[in-house]
Structures are given as C-alpha cells and as structure tokens.
Write a structure and sequence with these properties.
The chain is of the alpha+beta class. It has helices at residues 2-98, 169-180; strands spanning 99-103, 107-110, 116-121, 127-131, 134-138, 142-147, 150-156, 162-164, 192-198, 205-218, 222-233, 239-243, 251-253. Helices cover 43% and strands 32% of the residues. The strands form two sheets. Strands 2, 3, 4, 5, 9, 10, 11, 12 and 13 form a nine-stranded mixed beta sheet that branches. The longest helix has 97 residues, at 2-98. It is rod-shaped and about 190 Å long.
C-alpha cells in the first residue's frame, strides 16, 4: 500500500509538470501572435505618418502654388515695367523728333516767348536778326532748334557752351537806350546793335552791344558827339555794363 501511494504521488507530480509546461508553451504562442498584431498596428501608425507626410507634401504643393502666384505677380510687374519703359522711350524719341537742331537758316520764326523774328544769313558768315524796328548782326555761330511751332536760337561760345538767345533785338535796344538816357536807335544817331561774346573764361556770355552817338557839350560850351554803349545779356535782358569815353566827365550829356 505504501508503494502504491508513492507511485500515485509520482504520477500526479508528473502530470502537473506536463500541464505547467503546456501552459508556458500556450502562453508563449499567444504572445507571439499578439506581437504580430501589435507590429501591424505600429506599421499602421507608420502608414499614418506616411499619410501625414503626404499631407505635408500637399501643403508644400500648396505653397508651390502660392509661390507660383507670386511669380505671376512678378511677371505682371515685369510686363508693366517694360511697358512703361517703352512709353518713356517713345516719349524721348518723339521729343528728339520735335527738337531738331541745325544751322540757322534764312526765314521768319516764332521765338519761344511768342515774339516774331526774321533771320537773314549773309555771305560773310554773318547773321542778321530783326524784331520790330531793331536790327542786330552777329558773327557768332548760330543754330536753331525747332520745337513744334516754336524756334529756339542758340550761339556757340568760345568755352564750348551754347548760349540761348531769349531776348530779341528790339527788347535789347529798349533796355540799352533806357540805361543811356536815349529815346531812339536810328541811323541819325549812328545806332548799331551787335550780338557778340563778352566776358572772359568760363564767365563768357552772349550779349547785345548797343552803340550810339550821343550829343554832349564839352566843358559846357563846345557841342560834340561822344560814342556811348551798353551791353545787354541776350539770355535774361539785364544790362551788364555801360561804357563812355574817358573825357565824359568833362562833358554834359543831353537827352535825345
């Protein structure tokens, strides 16, 4: 009986050990498939990340479209700038076409101030200018620049610059006579008007020089004539200076 009890105990222990081993094996078998299930979930998360990356790419593509719009605006600005430049160039070309400078020619012209002037070129390279009743001559190189229906006259100076003749001979004559206290410029008093260069160096300018024979009394007794002159700026009409003979302080002038 004692031996049978021992044998039964051994069988029970053996069966228990076998069951325990089976449970470990089953547990491990369930765990491995579970891991397999978790891995697909992780992979799914990875795929989800992939979708998010695709979304990021989608956003990137959206930015690309936005950048394309900016580029479109840039192209529009380039087109606008090109059009403006072409318009400006056309305006310059039109201005150049309207302003043609050439050597002065004989004819009647309208100055920029609206005053009429007659130009007469002479065989000795001199030019005669007439406005109103006043006539001036010059040996300076003169050019004319046509701007629509107006004419700009210019003369060449010794320093290489050009001086515009804005003041006409009749206006210059009036300014000179006023400064010399004379009333008329005529052949009777030997009045002569010349457009010439005055000054020195960089200070040279074009001016009308008006010369007149003026009546005077030397020492208050002897009647005589003395030559007086006045220079009038051909650009602004200002009287630059007046000249009289050295003995003018001994003579009394009379208005004519």
């Amino acid at each position: 009986m004692k031996n049978l009890a021992i044998l039964a105990l051994i069988i029970v222990l053996t069966v228990g050990l076998v069951d325990a081993a089976g449970q470990d094996t089953g547990s491990q078998g369930v765990h491995e498939p579970g891991t397999g299930i978790e891995n697909p979930e992780i992979q799914g998360a990875g795929q989800g990340t992939g979708l998010q990356d695709d979304g990021t790419l989608g956003q990137g593509e959206g930015q690309g479209i936005q950048d394309g719009g900016t580029a479109g605006q840039g192209e529009g600005q380039v087109v606008q700038t090109t059009t403006e430049t072409q318009q400006q160039n056309q305006g310059v070309e039109t201005q150049i076409q309207n302003q043609v400078r050439s050597k002065v020619q004989t004819g009647s012209y309208t100055a920029e101030n609206g005053q009429q002037i007659q130009v007469q070129t002479q065989s000795n390279n001199r030019v005669q200018l007439k406005s109103g009743e006043a006539v001036a001559e010059t040996s300076m190189e003169m050019t004319q620049e046509q701007t629509q229906d107006k004419t700009k006259l210019q003369v060449k100076l010794s320093n290489g610059n050009n001086a515009e003749v804005k003041v006409m001979p009749d206006t210059a004559s009036e300014r000179a006579l006023e400064s010399l206290r004379l009333k008329v410029c005529s052949a009777e008093n030997g009045c002569q008007i010349e457009l010439k260069e005055v000054g020195q160096g960089e200070q040279v300018k074009a001016a009308y020089e008006v010369q007149v024979q003026k009546q005077a009394k030397l020492l208050g007794v002897f009647k005589t004539r003395m030559q007086v002159e006045a220079q009038v700026d051909a650009e602004n009409g200002e009287v630059i200076q007046t000249n009289k003979p050295w003995w003018a302080f001994l003579a009394s002038e009379t208005e004519e």
